[in-house]
What does this fold into?
Amino acid sequence: MVPSVDIRKDLRRRFSTLGESAVEWAIRLCGWSAILFVFAIFLFVFREGAPVLFRELDLKEFFTSVNWRPDSTIRPQFGILALLAGTASVTALAMAISVPAGFASAIFISEFCGPKAREALKIIIELLAAIPSVVWGFIGYMVLNPVIIWTTGAPIGINILNGGIILALMSVPIIMSVGEDALKAVPDSYREAALALGASRWQLTTRVLLPAARNGLLAAALLGVGRAVGETMAVLMATGHSVRIPHSVLDPVRTLTATIAAELGETVEGGTHYRVLFVIGSLLMIISLITNLTADLIVRGVKGRQRT
Amino acid sequence: MSVEAGLFAPGPIERRKRLIERAAHVTLLLTTAALILPLLAILAYLVVKAWPVLSWSFLVENPKNYMTAGGIWAALVGTLDVVVLSLAIAAPIGVLAGVYLNEYARENWLTRLVNLAVVNLAGVPSIVHALFGVGVFVLMAGFGRSIVAASCTLAIMTLPVIITSTTEALAAVPFAFREACWNLGASRWQTIRTIVLPNATSGILTGVILQVSRAAGETAPILFTGAVFYVAVPDSGLASFFPYGLRDPFMALSYHLFTISTQVTGASDALAYGTAVVLIALVLTVNLVSIVFRVRLRSRRKW
It folds into this structure.
């Protein structure tokens, strides 16, 4: 018996609606996967670190001791103060360079140059942003290292100054592009009003645009900080490996990220050292969550205000 | 000078304003130039230092003599494999997630949560991705240090950017297109499949292509999930094109650059510079392709 045309049509329709709802569910699941991954990463990294976090690890020592001796056979010590100082010093130097420079070029590109030059500059900056971090590390290690030794007379050129410059160059593109977006988001009527009052472009920028775009610029700086704190390969190669509190910008330091990268390969799975590295990973994750959420809230605040 | 000309000549305040304006302009220009020009100089320097080894045989030869001679073929193939596999995982999930966010998601707490998750996933430090990859893919899933484990780790890392760029590409398709299609009786998915996605293809591809360069350049996530110091790879024949199985550890260009510049002694610097230049060239070419794509797309847009 051949089913009649009507039944076949009906069957086909049923299959297509079935297929369609399957596709829609697949789409929903993929959409929610981002939440899944973030939670999975956090839970997993935390879970691997948790056994030592609540038992063996002396939290006071963890945050206040400068002694990082994970391999000591007598008494391994896990104090990350020197690593925190390393991350903080390199990030601070990088931001001291890249925030003013990034803002300056954002202002230049958004307010002071013509459309053709703007397009070209944005493409160049985009290409610079694409250079992998290991290449930046390589530049620090091979190119900047002798330059720093030659100019400052430091015994080693792989130090805070080197890492700071490299990280600054790496975070300029993000600071610049987010900063430029923030300036672009200021309504043109503000510009017209200021120009009509006889303001020069510089006066317009300093007295009108910068205050109006304050939040967006703050978010740009925060994203730069987030990128600098989380950066691994470049600091691993360019800042050196000495775990101690730095006294000058010419001291080599070790950052939190570089410590994980340098030591995870040597640890025993499930051992204390292995787990402590995961605790450091959780700490990095928390830092990045806080910076990103704050930056997001600030940007969202900007957008929300503009709509009204 | 006549009295009238004196009246309309710029006064001291105006002159000071113009002076500051000029100075500001020059300073900003110089700052921007100071960010870009030294970098171009450094890139040129890298090419000059790499010049002695740059040749076709550098690309297609395997490393020799404990990595102190020879080329980078094994690393190049490894990088290509990982990039292809990680995007094969990330692109479908990312594009569908983008479709969800732009076409299905309503304005509610769940959507806000998804958006927050995407933002945060994009901000997770690469070394934390590596920790996750080690724990979940290498140990828990039992992939070992392998191409699969490294690709999965990279896939999660590239996912948020693919989601964001897809959402943007879809949002650029005018809403009227969808309304017209719905009015013809098409269902939601039919509309997306036949109208929305085809019109957003170039935009989506631009985003995916950009992630090729990101996946090729990242080192930290593959550091403990699969990339290794050295793998002996067939020198010629078909086998040299597919040297790695899915469960094999592999060599990657980015990790190779790290090892030969910091850990191999006795290698000439030119090898390291050569590897760096190839990596940069690869990444910049991919990015240029994506930029050209975007520019053409913008000029061809029908609406």
Summary: Chain B touches chain A through 89 residues (CB under 8 Å). Chain B has a mean pLDDT of 88. The two ends of chain B are 58 Å apart (CA to CA). The first helix of chain B runs from residue 3 to 8.
